[in-house]
Design a protein that fits this description.
alpha/beta, D-Maltodextrin-Binding Protein, domain 2, about 40% helix, 2 domains, 12 helices, globular, 10-stranded mixed beta sheet
Length: about 325
């Protein structure tokens, strides 16, 4: 693993000293950049927990995102992290990108909020379904992120090899939309909350169309990938989108090092859920953080989290 930043090392050292002194257990929670949803949600949650809990302190730590969080938590450098559910599933089960390494030393803690897949083309492109993408220039999602696997899974279900049958691009949301509008690519995909600000802006100046996938195909993908669920983007969510769009969704999840004490994880889950009304105003997605959603994890759960969900009749 690459060297940790000085600030993160100092933070971890401070956490160890606090624990050694018998004070509240310090949890460093890996997020992503400070301008992103991960950090905003985690910081709001941490502030609420720290005001009430007599057992734990939570520090929202900026990082490079999901993959770095998984690596840091697996090594024990930090205690908890955030990722999309696919990364957590692969890491806890030793599948996908962790098939060679085997299961890592992490367990799921709670699901937070959902993000939906968006595949967009120009309205006059003639591209209506994923089947029409064969031979096209297609952005499959942001570089270095697990979410590109959703677009690839749908393409494979249509019999399209995403490495050979299309010309793949890997771009951030806004960059993909800009290249689509300029005609440099034929379609662009991303996974984000609904509505997505970038698409609201793009659809205001360009006639765009959702690329559709059949219910049969989506059901097949969900059956093969338990971290996905079917989702409907309501009609008129975006300009020109007059009909509902059937797609897939994935949850953002919190996970922990497997060795984190059960009572510490139990306290985190309890306070994060029961204090939700105290921090729900910090971001619209926090409305989705409910006990029912939290317990809905396809990945193996940390025993401390499972204890709370069982007490509430959720597992």
């Amino acid at each position: 693993m690459k060297k940790l930043g000085v600030s993160l090392m100092l933070l971890i050292a401070a956490a160890g000293m606090l624990s050694a002194q018998g004070k509240k257990y310090e949890i460093v929670l890996g997020t992503a950049g400070t301008s992103g949803t991960y950090y905003v949600v985690a910081a709001a949650m941490a502030q609420a927990i720290n005001k009430v809990s007599t057992k734990i302190d939570v520090v929202a730590q900026p990082t490079k995102g999901s993959i770095e969080n998984i690596n840091l938590v697996n090594s024990g450098a930090i205690q908890m992290g955030m990722s999309n559910a696919d990364g957590v599933y692969w890491a806890t089960t030793g599948t996908g990108m962790y098939a060679k390494s085997g299961p890592l030393n992490i367990k799921a803690v709670m699901s937070l909020y959902m993000s939906a897949g968006h595949m967009i083309a120009k309205a006059d492109s003639g591209i209506k379904t994923y089947a029409d993408l064969k031979g096209k220039k297609v952005c499959l999602g942001p570089p270095g992120q697990t979410v590109v696997e959703m677009s690839k899974a749908i393409l494979r279900a249509y019999g399209i090899n995403p490495d050979k049958d299309i010309k793949p691009f890997y771009l951030a949301i806004d960059e993909g939309l800009d290249k689509l509008k300029d005609g440099d690519i034929d379609a662009t995909f991303w996974v984000a909350g609904v509505p997505t600000a970038g698409l609201i802006n793009a659809s205001a100046t360009t006639n765009l169309r959702f690329v559709e996938a059949s219910d049969e195909i989506l059901s097949k993908v969900v059956a093969e990938n338990p971290y996905y669920s079917k989702y409907t983007i309501p009609a008129n969510t975006y300009k020109g989108q007059t009909a509902p769009v059937e797609t897939l969704k994935i949850m953002t999840q919190l996970f922990a090092n497997s060795n984190l004490p059960d009572d510490v994880v139990y306290e985190f889950v309890k306070q994060a859920l029961e204090l939700q009304p105290q921090y729900v105003g910090s971001h619209v997605v926090i409305q989705e953080i409910t006990p029912k959603n939290a317990a809905d994890c396809a990945s193996p759960l940390h025993p401390g989290a499972l204890k709370y969900y069982k007490e509430k009749g959720l597992r």
